[in-house]
Amino acid sequence: MNDRTKKTAAAVEGLPALEGAVVRRTWHEGQWWFAVVDVVAALTQSPNPAGYLRDLRQRDESLSGSWETLVTPLRVETPGGPQLLNCATLESVLRIVQSIPSVRAEPFKLWLAKVGNERIEQASTTDFGALSEAQRRLLLREQMSEHNKDLAAAARQAGVESPLDYAVFQDHGYKGLYGGLGAKDIHAHKGLKKSQKILDHMGSTELAANLFRATQAEEKLKRDQVSGKAAANRAHQQVGEKVRKTIEELGGTLPEALPRPEKSIQQIRKAMTPTLGKGKPKEE
User: Fold this and answer.
1) pLDDT tens-digit series, residues 20-43
2) Does the residue 120 lie in any domain?
3) 69 in helix, strand or coil?
4) 146-151, long-range: CB within 8 Å, 24+ apart, which pairs?
5) Mean pLDDT, to the nearest integer, of 118-134?
6) Are residues 137 and 26 in the same domain?
7) Which of these three, 55, 87, 103, is where a domain ends?
8) Which pLDDT belongs to residue 282?
């Protein structure tokens, strides 16, 4: 049994009130799946997390209606042997967490994001060879592009309609995450040319923080049924501020203090594109 397979449980960092809390996980179809009952236990301290989960589904019709698409029964290694537990992917767990009122939710989400990145690293180490920083950047940049589409759709639903409105909406998210710096400020801080995009000049850690901001902003707009441009802008900035606060509380490096990578995403893609007649793509 390799190290990846053995690592079926992980201590939840950032939750001092739950020291020793563990969320079991298992590797399935190329990604980590988390035991839902452990997620509930970590966030609620309920003596009966399974019962809490049943009640939660009864209260939340939306969650109950999408339950079969969010959760899959999988065998998870435990001290007593394999058990069949309802498990969910990183993205599905984040959806479930949205329905659980808990002051521990934000640090728990950041922990999930951290483990999700570890998931990528471990998958590549075992199956594809270790991902380089350049490969992580490419993967996260692609995810950022996809989730920005979802965020834009949620923003339109909230009343953010024109391209200018959306630019202002995005600016509020950046200001929350970057301590008051808007997109133009970040652009200048990185020393970029007018045609260059800030997301293409972020390292994997900075991209991960922005991906977390984007996914949670989308969820908040939908969950709170935010209506109106001003309300959507406030919601996006609040999400950015919470992500920033969590990074601070965990002792992480704030995004504006992270170094600008030497190569852009475009340069990495070009370097990894096989030349006609050549063999494997080059790597950084």
Assistant:
1) 567 888 877 767 788 899 888 888
2) no
3) helix
4) 147/211, 147/214, 147/215, 147/218, 148/214, 150/214, 150/215, 150/218, 151/214, 151/215, 151/217, 151/218, 151/221
5) 52
6) no
7) 103
8) 38
Backbone angles phi, psi at 267, to 5 degrees: -65, -40
How many domains does the chain divide into? 2
Centre a 10 Å sphere on the Cβ of residue 142 and count the other Cβ atoms it contains. 11
CB 137 within 8 A of CB 203: yes
- The tokens describing 43, both together, are 């966030």
Give the range of the structural domain holding residue 20, as residue numbers without chain letter: 1-103
Contact 212, 109 (CB under 8 A): yes
Q: What is the pTM of this model?
A: 0.56
Among 110, 104, 71, 64, smallest CA distance to 216 is for 110
Report yes or no: 43 and 93 within 8 Å, Cβ to Cβ.
no
Closest CA to 284 of 254, 253, 262: 262
pLDDT tens sequence across 180-237: 999 999 999 999 999 999 999 999 899 999 999 999 999 899 989 999 999 999 999 9
